[in-house]
Design goal:
With 214 residues, the chain is α/β, with parallel strands linked by helices. The protein has a domain at 21-141 and 173-192: NAD(P)-binding Rossmann-like Domain (Rossmann fold), CATH 3.40.50. It is 33% helix and 14% strand. The longest helix has 21 residues, at 64-84. The protein starts with 20 loop residues before the first strand and ends in a 9-residue tail after the last helix. 27% of the residues are buried.
Length: 214
């Protein structure tokens, strides 16, 4: 599907003029892929590692409707921005974790990894920075599953984690790079340990997890 906008071009749009309106769009990590054209793992996933719409339609993997909606929304938004002189910036968020207000545990909390505080700060930062342009990955830290489980076990000891012992979980297939955002001067407030602490605290507080030691 073509919209007349090259989404691979990181220079899409231009620096905002005094008469331009800046809009910050919330995108999703689901719009990116860690696989190359041959199906192998990329060493680094950046803003250029975009999932192709045709691939989503063809494979219809789990959550494909959400991914498709994010891809098409972003494409249409950039098309509209170019045609109407809007200065559009897109924030590609990692899976969100941390404190929550819902009555059920959000699906993102079940897989962790980026606190809402970091994402909100990134939106404000990009709204205000005069050189912000194009798409930006917002992902605080790459964390192999083994390290994540170790932090979780320290924060909330659970026998359920024992089933992972002995597995090789130290290698992450790809690094999700937030270099473009950090090069602009953005600094993350929370790391993995903070994310896990806030998530566990929220789950315990809402009764989804038993209090530690109970």
């Amino acid at each position: 599907m073509e919209f007349g906008v090259d989404m691979e071009d990181e220079n899409i749009g231009s620096s905002p003029s005094q008469n331009q309106i800046r809009v910050v769009l919330t995108s999703s990590i689901s719009t990116l892929t860690a696989k190359d054209s041959n199906g192998g793992w990329k060493q680094v996933v950046d803003e250029f590692s975009r999932t192709h719409v045709d691939h989503v339609w063809k494979t219809k993997a789990s959550g494909w409707v959400y991914t498709l909606s994010k891809l098409l929304t972003e494409e249409e938004a950039f098309k509209f921005a170019v045609e109407n002189g809007v200065d559009l910036v897109s924030v590609i968020t990692a899976t969100v974790a941390g404190p929550f207000l819902t009555t059920n545990v959000p699906s993102s909390i079940q897989v962790l990894l980026s606190p809402l505080t970091n994402i909100c700060k990134a939106h404000i930062f990009l709204m205000e920075h005069e050189k912000a342009d194009g798409r930006y990955i917002c992902s605080a830290q790459n964390c192999p599953l083994a390290k994540l489980l170790n932090h979780l076990a320290q924060e909330y000891p659970s026998s359920n984690l024992q089933r992972f012992l002995g597995e090789d979980l130290n290698q992450a297939p790809s690094e999700i790079s937030s270099k473009k955002l950090k090069d602009l001067g953005f600094k993350y407030k929370h790391g993995v340990q903070d994310i896990i602490h806030e998530t566990v605290t929220g789950c315990v507080g809402y009764g989804f997890l038993h209090p530690i030691g109970s």
